[in-house]
Each structure stands twice: as C-alpha cells, then as structure tokens.
Amino acid sequence: MTPRYLITGATGAQGGAIARYLAAHGTEVIGLVRDPEKPAPTGVTLLAADLGDADAVQEAFTGITHAVVTIPLEYDPDTVLTYARNVATAARTARLRRLVFNTNTALPETTTPYAAFETRRAAEDVIRASGVPTVVLRPPVYLDNLFSPWHGPDLVDHGVLAYPLRADQPVAWLSHDDLARLVAAALDNDALVGRVLDVGGADVLTGPELARAFAQVLGRDVTYVPLDVRRFEDGLARAVGAAAAAGVAGVYHHAHTDPALLAADPAHTERELGVRLTPAVEWIRAQSWEHWAAG
C-alpha cells in the first residue's frame, strides 16, 4: 500500500505541526478533526470525525498505513478510554504499520490524583495492548506556550516571563516543530516499536535560566515569575473551559512535588530518535516577538 498518514487534531497546535512537517516532506496526510471549517495545514486533507464515534473512527482509519494520535483537551476518564479503545480497534482493523501515541505530557512513575496523567496512562495502556506496532512519546512542556497572548506581551513589553512552575524546576522545554521531527522519526524507525520514550528539548532550563535566554535575544532584562497554579488555572478556564483547565493545571500541581518530571535528557532523546534538537535561544530568535509589542 502507498503510505497514507492520519494525524488527529491536525488543526491544533501539536497535531498541526506534525501534519505540516509530514506533508512538507511529501507524505499524504489526512487530518482527523472535529471542526473541518478551521484552516487546514498546507498539503493536508481534513476529515471530520469525533474520536468518541467508533464507526467514524473506523472509517477514518480505512486505507491508512501510519497514524499519530494526540488526545484532545479532554480529561474525563470514561471519555478518554472510549477514544483510546476506538483508536485501538480501528488501527488494528486497518493493520497499521505504525502508530505513534503522543501522551502530551510526561507521566510520573506512580499513580497520582491528577486526570492529566491518569487518563493518558490509561489510554497509553489500551493502545499499547492493541497489537499495533506502536511507539509512545511522552513530551514535557512546550516552548510554543510562551508565544501566546498570555505570555508574549509581558515578555516583550515588561520583561516578565511568568509560568506556573517553581523557579528551580528544571524543564526540557520542547518546541512543536521539534515534536513533529521526533514523531516523524518514530514513524520511520522499526527499532523503536514497543518503546515508551520520555522526550524533551535541547536545553534543560529552570525558569530564571530560560528568562536569561529570552533576555539574550530580546535585548532587555527578563525576570522569571512563578505563577500560582490556581491563578493560572482560573485564567486558562476563561479560554478553554473549567474542566480542561483543571486537567492541564494538574500537571503543574504535581510538578511542584516532582522535580525530575519534566527534565527529560536531551542527549537520550537525540540518540534514540536521531534528531538534532533546537536550542532554546535558537527557537526564541526564530519567533516574531514584535507581534506582541504594545501599540
């Protein structure tokens, strides 16, 4: 069969980056989305389906050879399990050559009270048990979160980098573009089948260290301010809803007690996946920060 790739959430931040990267390298990419009215990434064909609809997912996977699955901002355990079971069944029926599951978060070794981790852990278990050749990638926190209306203006206009992590929390900040390259490598490397890989960016940095990287590029002093997680959750709720915000905030609540959670070893990521990761300063320099300047 001619390779055909299915990417869930292809109009979102992570799925979009993955879909764009694969399409730019000559791959036939189908984007599985809930809202087909959103603009499609260049070279990507959109297909409307809800992961909770077993028949629609089965139809979407027909004729697909490779898939990349990222669960949307949904943290109800039953709903996420339904998504995972529908994907596993459809992928097995389609006899996929490779499925890459992006958990969208690092996972603690032990069970936690946070749905952000436990729903993804349960989904990972279902997909790995499907019999489909699978690679699981567990990323930390995305640099792209900072190029947003919530952070960009404060960085550019006030020299403040505010984020809901302790100042001494080491983080292997990863860009969406590097995620896409890691996913592409996982789709193509038979030696990775069956593996679960904690991945991250090129630099493991604390908040103040990341602030210094921003200062180097922006040419002004930048101060790191650790946000209160509850305040962060309240602000996020206005954008994505209370349930999704509570799910996301769980990662940061737990990170305060687990210093190693988000600090994946860059050398291990590069060695296992054969990808050169982008240094934080290089990523910062490539963004159009003037977009967020006042006036």
TrEMBL record:
InterPro entries in the cross-refs: NAD(P)-bd_dom_sf (IPR036291), NmrA-like (IPR008030), NmrA-like_oxidored (IPR051164)
Key words, A-Z: NADP
Entry annotated with the keyword NADP: yes
Keyword check for NADP: yes
Signal peptide limits: none
Domain NmrA-like: residue ranges: 6-232
Family: Belongs to the NmrA-type oxidoreductase family.
Protein name per its UniProtKB record: Nucleotide-diphosphate-sugar epimerase
Organism: Streptomyces finlayi
